[in-house]
Every structure is written in structure tokens, then in C-alpha cells.
Amino acid sequence: MKPASRSCAMVRAGDAELGLAPSGALWSAKDRVLVMADLHLEKGSSYAARGQLIPPYDTAATLERLEAEVAAFAPEQLIFLGDSFHDPLGPARLLAEYRDRLAKLARLCDLVWVAGNHDSEGLDGLPGRTCVEIASPDLIFRHAADPCSDLEGRVEVSGHYHPCAKVSSRGRGVRRRCFALDGNRLILPAFGAYTGGLNILDPAFAAVLRQPVQVFALGRDAVIALDPKALRPD
Amino acid sequence: MVMDELGGRDTSPNGARKLAALPPRFEAWFAGRGWRPRAHQLTMVQAAEAGEHALLIAPTGGGKTLAGFLPSLIALSQGERTQRLHTLYISPLKALGVDVHRNLEQPIAEMGLDIRVETRSGDTSAAKKDRQRRLPPDILITTPEQLALFCAWEGSAELFGGLSTVILDEIHVLSGNKRGDLLSLGLARLQALSPKLRRVGLSATVADPPGLLGWLTPRGRGGRLILGEPGAPPVIEVLRSRHPTPWSGFTARHAMVEVYEAIAAARTALVFVNTRFQAELAFQMLWEVNGDNLPIALHHGSLAPEQRRKVEAAVARGELRAVVCTSTLDLGIDWGGVDLVVQLAAPKGSARLIQRIGRANHRLDQASRALLTPAHRFEVLECEAARAAVLAGELDDARPRSGALDMLAQHMMGRACASPFDPAEFYDEVASAGPYQGLPRSDFDRVLDFVASGGYALKAYDRFHRIVRDRAGLYRARTAEIVRRHRMNVGAIVDTPMLNIRMGVRRGGTWTAGRKLGEMEESFVEHLSAGDSFLFAGKVLTLQGVAGTDALVTPAPPGVEAKLPSWGGSKFAISTSLAKRVRNMIADRTVWSDFPEDVQAWLQVQAQRSLIPAEDEMLVEIFPQARKTYLVAYPFDGRHCHAALCQLLARRLERLGRAPLGFVANDFGLAVWTFAPLDGLDLNALFEEDMLGDDLDTWLAESFMMKRAFRTCAVLSGLIEQRRPGGARSGREITFSTDLIYDTLRRHQSDHLLLDCAQRETLGDTLDIDRLGRLLKRIQGRIRLRRLDRVSPFAAPVLMEIGREPILGAAEDAILRENAADLVRDAMRLDPITP
Lengths: 234, 835
Hints:
CATH superfamily of the domain at 3-227 in chain B: P-loop containing nucleotide triphosphate hydrolases
Low-confidence stretches of chain A: 1-5
Low-confidence stretches of chain B: 1-17, 564-570, 727-736, 804-819
Number of helices of chain B: 32
Strand content of chain B: 15-25%
CATH class of chain A: Alpha Beta
Mean pLDDT of chain B: 85
Radius of gyration of chain A: 17 Å
Shape of chain B: globular
Number of strands of chain B: 29
Strand content of chain A: 25-35%
Structural class of chain A: alpha/beta
Number of domains of chain A: 1
Order of helices and strands of chain A: EEEEHHEHHEEEEEEEEEHEE
Largest sheet of chain B: 7 strands, parallel
Mean pLDDT of chain A: 88
CATH architecture of the domain at 3-227 in chain B: 3-Layer(aba) Sandwich
Radius of gyration of chain B: 28 Å
CATH class of the domain at 3-227 in chain B: Alpha Beta
CATH topology of the domain at 3-227 in chain B: Rossmann fold
Helix content of chain A: 10-25%
Oligomer: heterodimer
Largest sheet of chain A: 9 strands, mixed
Number of strands of chain A: 16
Shape of chain A: globular
Largest interface: A-B, 29 and 36 residues
Distance between the termini of chain A: 37 Å
CATH architecture of chain A: 4-Layer Sandwich
């Protein structure tokens, strides 16, 4: 095992054995597939275009973490679960330097861009292929969980909701991004540097996940399974 | 301002009439009320005739506000008027402005003057605001926030072009903070629009009058300082309880019956406490002993505004016997009926105490009465120190502060919204504003770059600049949308994330929100679980759950005890000058006999078992207690300073391999503890000043304080919008995103303007790092170490702070009490005398 994967929490879902990384990425060792949700690249410039000049370093920060994960896992395929850009004009604003870094990644592994709701208009000129969803024998990858769909025994892996979990003790609340798993649906936390989160107790999750839901919070160096009774609303 | 206050029976010994004569109409008005103008009122008129800026410091009840307006009333009555605004009056509180307006109408009506006065605040209707712009009144009464809005308005040059006078009331509250920074920039703007403008400041309590005059006047030059005659000295008593003085705590529960007796003996009392939670608790405790069912009410900043207004009106009508309140009533409308001020727990600063005492007996010739109630034995000393300081007229040290750059950024954006500006001219204007005098041009340019482009090393936003330079070299706002959004976010106040406290109504198995009781910091509610009970608005409430931004509560069943959370407001730290007085009182045994007997005994046992340090010394005690070794130091320099020192000491001990387990601080001392004995420590090295270097930086960067300060700076500088078209963002949404921005910025551009702003704010305002620096310098070479075999009388109260978790359930409370008893027994046990 590569060093970074040592800190993955291993979970069994359906027939698949999946590694949940502290970065928020998902690692399927069997297929050598690395998955990330909701990069929201160019969120900074999206705000800037509307008059709020928040620091332009989010794309760099996200790419850095992305490159570190690729270096650690050496995947054959890298899947982005949609909302890879914050808005449809994001790819056009991407600096040449960042474009080159994506091209470099594409030489190391296959890039698959699943379409999201923020970036459904395609990713002209970026390396890799785009799709609405993609499936392996055990897994199906799409942007948003679809509770009506027939999984045909597979495990659905999605993003979109930016799940976060909050716990508190000794008078202090801690809120972290988290994975949420209900047995055959797994929702990934958002990977992007400026992405906020939705509390896992929000009714939106009850609409797509069945109880009991397992919650895995992203710690600094490890993924921590939380006691469902300890979860707090915001 | 009750009418009594407007003029006065002439008591001036030096014969005010020599100074100047008022126009006959004004003389007649004073005479008709049986008054003569006071000397300082006439001097104010004189200063106005000479065209001088003026700072008037006069005690409460001295006709100060009228003195401020008198020159304008005279000028307007003599026909000096244009179709534009003549006088702008700015007060820190909306309510104060309304009151001043009402009281000003009286002399205007009685003298038959043709002068139009109007008020303007955030609550003023859009139609009225619009009319005020088109047809300005002669005198406009408003707040600093409204001035900031005016400064960002394209009609400001027209409106203020003929402004003659700007009056700043309660100027000590309006200066010395970020709100003051923004106001000072607004004053500079007004001066540029109306070069002959006269600035007038009014205050009753000013620590450093020349310093404040320098803040008020352009480039700190000129201006006249006018002092009113002092009023009768206050009568201040430190309560001596029949019960033992507590070792620690903040409630003063032991003295509640005596406080109640004092209330019963007075006409109307204001009972001041330092935090909202203390207010809730004191209110509860007073009602527990309220055998006569006296009307006692509660007033603090978290209660719903309607409820606060109700209480204020009831006091004004003389229907209440006491109001338990926080600093929300430090300022504000004057109530003639209040004849006693009670301070529960030490006031922490003499200026605050003077301000509060001034709320009683608003008449110059009658003494105000105050009763100080210490909550524990160190506070007995502190209350005595505060009493002595007030009687000696000594106010807390004023700390000069330089203007915050985030406020300059906001003002600069506003400047561009009003009209295109030339950077060199604007720099001159800014550098004339009190706290921005001496601002380097390089800092100004850095702010300019920030406002325009965000100030990033990575130039990614060239197309999105907020202000752009035109061919004439002038900066202007790039789009109308940017202007509109800036105007929505003007001000120096950042909302803390708050939740509404609402009565929960159960409908078909789910809770829905009912009547609103008030607001509470989200961080407090975070500490509670559904089913927990807490005190709010004078009631014990049970939390049922949180829905969105509402915390839903129900009245707790009878007999349920509220949990004791430490919430609400900042805890004040003891001021430098009071701390020095306390050190002196401890060192000077001749004054001990003034203290209650148990406090004397406590000091004597400390002298016998350990040591009483001299005024310029710091005592350090090291002793074993309950299988741990404690190091307790007594700098007497306030809790903020001590808390920072604890952090830094713990880091240093960690590096020395001493493995500190924990630390605790209060206003008087601090403790750090370890498992292993603390032998062979070089204390002078341990308390060396150089700890304010790298250790401080590393600690700060990760700290919650810095993130909170960054959030404030990000909002105030306009990086993050607090309000957006289509509804306000709640404070909670802001918190999350600024933390992300903070982390990203720290990694990618650690020298960014806003990180500097946040650091300055944390070091200066939150931690008071200058004070820590002075403390370390003061004690170098003057540390007295005592090694003891057990806890000392001084150490016991410090150690009792340990484990004061935010929430003390009944069980933890009991544990704490048992431990406290042990500590006291050990601390006060005298060793057998060996021959």
C-alpha cells in the first residue's frame, strides 16, 4: 500500500471494498480508481466577476491536494463527480498554468469528468472525457444521488450535497466534511478549497439516504467514524 | 437630558457673565426658567464665534448637550442659514438621538425660533430619507453609520457643502475603536466638503483630554479644550456583607439580601453587571429574595428590542424600583428618578464606573450614590481600588491606537461611490483624520490596491477591479452594481452569528417557531443539547431544538434548575491603573484594616505562609497539590493578558520537556501545572520578554481568535459581503467561508493586507499584547519565588478557576464545591510553630 492509503478508512459496501481518504477522496483499490466530488474550481474568480474579490488561490490549492492524492495512490482512472467548476464559464477563466497541470495529470491517468449542475455545459478543451454517469461492475458514479434509480446490486457513489458533520463536547463544536453511507449509496464530501457544507442532519439527506446512515468525518490525518447519536445540527 | 440639565442655577464662582452675553432672546429664555447660562456654555459660544473646534468635558447634569447646540441655535436664529444642512449631531445610540431631539425642540419652541430639527437612523423611512436629502433640515440628528452612508452618496458634496458644525456626543464612546476610525474618516470627508466646518465633541468621562482633542481636530492641531465645573463628588460605598467573603466566583450571591435591602431603601436603583449572563442570574437571585414583590426588571442586549423599550419606558414613568442591566444602559436617556447605582462584581475599570455612577441623580449639585458589591476577596481589593480611583478622578489609561486599515478600505470604496477621487488629494484628507495621522503613503497605497484588485500577488482579477483609474488619473467605481452593493454593507459592526430564541409551539408532532424572546450567540446554543435548561429573559427555559436560525424553547417545568453556562458578552479585564492600585494595596499593610475581617485574615495567612510581594514585584509560588505540581504567578494584570501569558508559558515549558498538563488564568494570577515536580526552573528565563516572538506567532496563526478577527476584517473591508441584494446573509454562513479563505490566504499569501489587519486586531484589541510586553518588562529581575508544601491563600482562588467548564451541571457543581472546600482548608491551615 502507498503511504497515503494507510490512513484510509476501509468500508464494505455491497461487493465493493472502498477506501475513504482524509482528503475526502474515494479509493477503489480493485479498479485502481480515485474519485473526488465537487472541486468547484475557479470559485474565487466566479465571485470576483460578481464584485467580491476573494483570494484567487482556490484553484491552485485544490489542484495541489489533487496532485498529492494522485501521487499517493497512482490511480489508473481519476473520476470527478461533477461540479468540477463553480460555474459554466469557469473552464474559460482557468489560467494556462492550471490547464497545463491538468494536462500533466491526464498523462498519468484517465480523467473522467461527470457532469454536475454547475458545469453541465461541458469542459471544452480540457483533457479527459465527459459523461453523465459511469459504471463499473460494482459501482455506479453520478453527480447527485438518485433514490429512484435501480442500482442493480451496485453501490452508487455521488457528490453534490457537500455533507458535513458536527459534533460537540466540552463546550466546543467541531464541524467537518464527511462521507455518508447507507449501505448501497455513498455520498462524498466536497473536495474543493472553498466549498462549504450541508449538515448531514439536514432533511435533504433523509430524502436520498436510508437509515441507518454511517458518517465518516475527515480528521487531520485520519477518517473518523462518528457515533450517529453524537451528531448535532448546526 | 432632563430639562433640569439644560441650564442651571448659576453656581459659577467666577461670574459667567464676564465671558460673553447671549442674544436677548436667549438671555430671556434662561431667565424665564430661573437659570443663568453656565460658564462652559458661554465659552462654547465664544469658541464658535472664534471659529474654533472645541472639546467640552463636563459632568453629567451640566447642560452639556445644550452647550453643544447653543452656538448653532444662536447662529440660525440670527439668520445664518442656507438651504443646506447647518449642523450635524452624531450620537452613538439611536435612542439617545431621539431623546436629544425631543429636548431640543423645547427651547426652540419656547424661544419661537424658526429652526427645523430632524432625526435620521437606520429605521427612518425611505420616503423621509429622500425628503431629507432634497430639503435638508437645519439640524440633523443621526448616527455614525448614517454619516458613512452619506459619504458613499453622490449628493454628499451638495448636502454638506454649507455645513457649519458637527457635534459628536459621548465622544469617548465614539473614539478609540473601529467605529471611531470610520467616523474620523467621515469627519475628514465633511471637512473637505466644507472647509470652515467646526468640530465639537462632548463627554463626561475622558481619560486623556488632550489626546481626545487631538483625535477630534484635523491633523490634531488647534481646538479648544473646555472644562465644565465638576459636580458634587459621588458617594461610593463598598458593600460589607454580613456573610463570609467568597473565595472565587462572580455571582455575589452571598450579598444578595443586602443588595435587595439597598434597593428597597432607594427610590429607583440601576443594578449593573458585566455580562448578560450575570444579569440573568442576578435578576433571578433578586427575585428569590424579593419578599415585598418590588417591581424589579431586566435589561440587556440580547432581549428583544420591544421588551427593552418597555423597561426603559417603565423606568421613565417611575414605575420600577430596580433594573438589572449590562453596559446597554451605560449610556442613553436620562432618568431623573434613579437615585442609586449598584455595581455587582467589580467594575474592572474606573471610567466604566464613573459612567455608571453618573446614571444616578442626574443633577449637578447632588451627589450620586453608588454601592459596589465585590463577588470574591480579590474583588474586595479591586472595588476599594475603584472607589479610590473615582474619588481621585483617575481614569483608566487611554491607549492611543492607529486607525484600522480595513476601515480605511471600506471608507475608500465609499469615497469612490460618491465621486471619482484623486489618490494624492484623498491621501492628504485621510492623513488628517485623528487615528490616521502619520499613516505612511505605502500603507495607503496598499489599501488602494486592495480595494481595487483584492491586493493579491497573483494578478488574476484584472477584469474585475472594483475601482478603476480613468484617463484623468481619478479612481471611480467600476459598475453601478458595485456601488449599490457597497452601500448595503456600510458600517463598523459585524453581526456575530446569532440565533433567535423563540417559544416553541408543538403542532402535530413537530415544533414550530412562536413568539421571539430575543437573540443569543450561536456559540452558546452550541453548548446545549435538546432538553437542557438555561436562563434567558428572566425565565428558566428548556431547549427543544434548533430549526434554521431559531432555537425553540419552552418554559421549564417548575423545580428544574438552569444549567450554568458562561455566555454573553466579553469579560472585561481589570484596567492597568486599577491593577496597579490593587498591587499597592496588597503591598501596603497599613490599609488592610479597612478590609472585612476575613479578607484581612486571608492576607495575613498569605504573609505568614508565603509572601506579600512589594508593588513592583511578582510573586511566583510552586507547590504540590493533589499529586500535581502547580506554578502560580500573580502579575495582577488582567485576564486577557494572563491568558496569553499562560499559552506562551505552556509552550515554553513544553519545549523544556516539563510537559505542562493545563493552565488557567483570572484577573489576578495564572497557574500552570505538571505531573513532575518543577525543580531547577530559571524563572527569569521563563518569563523572558522574547516569548513574544516566534511562539506568539505560531500560537496565533492557529488560534480561533485570529480566525474571528479575520472574519471581522474581511467583512469590514468589503472582501465579504454581510448583506446582499435579496436578503441578509446570516452570520453563520459568513463564518464558514471566511475560515476557508483564511486558511487559503495564509498558505498562499501570508503577507496579505487582511492577515496583517487580523493580526493587529488580535494583538492589540483582543490580547492587549502591549500590556503583556509592559508586564514582562516590569517583572524582569523582580520575580520572588516561594516554594510551598501546599496551596497558598492567594493560589486557592486561582485554582478554583480550574475545571470551570462552560456548563456546570448539578453533579459537576458538587464536585467543584467539595474541591473548593479542601483547597480553602489547606490554604488557610497554619503550620505548627517549630521552636
